[in-house]
Write a structure and sequence with these properties.
With about 110 residues, this protein is an all-alpha fold. It has one domain. It contains 4 helices and no strands.
């Protein structure tokens, strides 16, 4: 299965990040939802369904924050901005930190639903 709609992207993103929150010591590449791990979803750009949606639907080559289904309401409005939950998750070195920031991303997906 591929990410086809914005709703697909958000639902798969929530599923991915909930798994990441429950498995903080594992890479998001190990998510069981990826076809390569026996799941249902083709691997996505940056291992993120929302990034794949942005890549596939950004015909005007706009900044990703203009197309991403999630609203990253911090400096620059994109996932890689300083102080974004994704950046904090990426930089966290503790399982508790990884879980906390992954859950923040889940909340962004819920807000986007």
């Amino acid at each position: 299965m591929k990410v086809k709609t914005e709703e697909d992207a958000v639902l798969h993103c929530f599923d991915l990040w909930l798994w990441v929150a429950c498995n903080p010591e594992k890479s998001k590449r190990r998510w069981p939802g990826w076809m390569s791990n026996g799941g249902y979803l083709e691997e996505c750009m940056s291992y993120c369904p929302c990034c794949q949606y942005e890549e596939d639907n950004n015909e005007e080559d706009m900044p990703c924050e203009n197309v991403c289904p999630l609203t990253w309401t911090v400096n620059g409005y994109w996932c890689g901005a300083d102080n974004s939950p994704y950046k904090k998750w990426h930089d966290s070195r503790t399982p508790l930190g990884k879980t906390m920031y992954a859950l923040e991303i889940c909340a962004l997906a819920i807000d986007a639903m």
